[in-house]
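Contributing: when you submit paired examples, paste them exactly as shown. First protein:
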Amino acid sequence: MAYAQTLPMRQGVFYDAAGGRDSVLGDAAAVVIMSWAIAVCARLCVPLPFTPVPLTGSTLGVLYAGALLGPRRGSAAAALYLLQGGCGLPFFSGGAAGWACLLGPTGGYLLGFLPGAWLAGFLAQRGWDRRTGSSLVLLLAGSAVILACGLVGLARFVPFGRLLSVGLYPFLAGDLLKSVVCAVLLPWGWHRIGRESGKK
């Protein structure tokens, strides 16, 4: 039996199919709110002089959305975030906006938010969020997917010999820290949307 099916159905997390209009509205509200949370995290931006990719908090928001909302709604929140930023809202790192951001050096990382959020949510639904150690593993797995997508996109702008030094190594410590913070914040998020982690 899938992990999600073993959980009590709770308003705000795993909606009952019979929930009707309230469930749809609740899903939509969760997706919108988390897309804005990702945008807030993206405001935490530190440019690095040796790479076109800045240190940013957006990965924290993406992984949190995935682990908290599950694969479907978590990746939907990431997609809505990208859509809003592409349409001109200052949602990308440092307040940037526009579709050009998705085509530039950071575009691979941004597009990697979709599979990264999905994977974090997929693993969380299967119980990887039950313990601190496995929570960190699922968050780091989502982060690894984002970094891999980012490297693929960055390879168009950076010589292969410098790819890891400008697109991977500078971000490993920060991604570890963001994963730890996300793991610490998950129980608070569950409580806010009505899920009691002790009853998994």
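Second protein:
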Amino acid sequence: MTPIPKSAAQLYETDFFAWTEKTVQLIRAGQFGQVDWDAVIEEIESLGRSDRRELKSRLEVLLHHLLKWQYQSGLRSGSWQNTIDEQRNKILDLLQESPSLNSYPEEVLAQCYHRGLKAASNETQLPIDTFPVECPYSIAQVFDVEFLPDAIDF
């Protein structure tokens, strides 16, 4: 039995991948009247939000690991440094692909720091008040591939 073709709008709700293929076919064929433009607009908006969410998430992880590096220097590992390097690289890739996000890390630094701080406290089991209330690193330091904070000894 051959499946009955669905409209682009129906596919969007039931089979996202099929919807993307159908939408591309319709646009390439110039059949713009059959395109579910509301869904296309929704997906384009979602792409922009996705980049912002990814940037924030990577910044949180980066700050978390910088704090661990600084406050648990006796446990430093190549894995921690690799995580720091990877997050920096991925953030820089995002910023190169979307230069209009260049100011965004500075805008969300405080928020990301507090989330990274909580993760560092949880993971290290150090009391949260062990760490600075505000981010001790400038955005330039956070992104500087040569920067690793000095150890804090207790």
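If you have annotations for the second protein, write them as plain sentences, like these:
The helical segments are 8-14, 16-28, 37-71, 78-97, 104-124, 139-143.
The CA atoms of residues 101 and 107 lie 10 Å apart.
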